[in-house]
Amino acid sequence: MILNKIKVVVAGFRGKMGSTAVQMILNAPNFELVALLGRKEEVSEAFDVPVFNRKEELENIEADVWLDLTAPEVAYENTYFALEHGLRPVVGTTGFTEDEVARLIKFSREKELGGLIAPNFALGAVLLMQFSKQAVKYFPDVEIIELHHDGKKDAPSGTAVKTAELMAEERLAHHQGAVDEKESLVGARGSVLEGMRIHSVRLPGLVAHQEVIFGSKGEGLTLRHDSYDRSSFMTGIALGIRKVMTVSELKYGLEHFFDL
Ligand code: NAP
Fold it and tell me: Cα–Cα distance between 247 and 116 in angstroms, integer?
């Protein structure tokens, strides 16, 4: 049986994630790279496929999947554009608001198109989120520390927000720490999502790391995941590209495609 290859467009192909994903697609027997979208008006002769610097130029490209690894300021409009033109978005770009995700899910249902927005494509990070959701039932006092390279533009990370949102489904919102605590330096206690504190560290040398620290009477539990390089995201991206072809709405989180 000859299976059709899944035709993929990569937006943000010159970036750290985008360039790694392009190599993964070129090496995958079931995927076909059909076009690239960057921001710069630079000629790219390294590829046999058309290279564009305006998304509107992709309107007539025959493709199945729009892989987006760009920047928070364009990710929403790119994802909307992909759905509008019949492409299934697989989005790794972070920084979406809850409202934007909800609007894109609604639009994907209207278009009956599959899609995925995944704050983290690393399989271990998805498991960390699921384990955190389980642990918070027994350890409702929890703080998150996310650590990333210093080029990251959004904070807190999409993964930290998603982890907190998942834990919030199982945990009664409550204040943590002393009721009368005071910050002598603004931000010392981090940001807050439903009473859970999130701390963001940005340093050169890091890639993407997260600790979820639970505390209870006389005991503690720490869950940690590390992405040491960008190859850690490629298995999840490949899974996402395959799976969006089998569903007819956009999903938020790679765990929707896990057999958990
Ligand atoms: P990066 O190296 O800065 O690359 C971003 C690319 O997006 C650049 O190549 C740039 O194109 C393009 N771009 C930036 N701003 C743009 C704009 N305003 N309009 C159009 N294109 C624009 O970043 P990265 O480390 O690859 O990360 C890309 C995104 O993926 C970020 O949002 C990051 O947080 C996210 N990320 C997600 C995961 C995950 O697992 N979901 C993992 C790591 C990173 P030009 O080079 O042509 O200017």
Answer: 10
- All domains of the chain in start order, with CATH: 6-117+231-257 (3.40.50.720), 123-228 (3.30.360.10)
Q: How far is the CA of 20 from the centre of ligand 1 (A)?
A: 12
The Cα 154–Cα 58 span in angstroms is: 27
Ligand 1 center to 149 CA (angstroms): 13
3-state SS of the chain: helix, strand, coil percent to 5? 35, 25, 40
Q: What is the DSSP string of 201-234?
A: EE-TT--EEEEEEEEETTEEEEEEEEE-SGGGGH
Nearest protein Cα to ligand 1, atom 21: 39
How close are the terminal C-alpha atoms of the chain, in Å? 30
As for ligand 1, residues whose beta carbon falls within 6 Å of it are 12, 14-18, 38-40, 69-74, 92-94, 118-121, 152, 208, 233
The DSSP secondary structure of 28-52, one letter per residue, reads: -TTEEEEEEE-SS----TT-SS-EE
Instruction: Find the mean pLDDT for residues 5-19.
Output: 97
Active site residues: 148, 152
- The structure's pTM equals 0.88
pLDDT tens per residue, range 118-177: 989 999 999 999 999 999 999 999 999 999 999 998 999 999 999 999 999 999 889 899
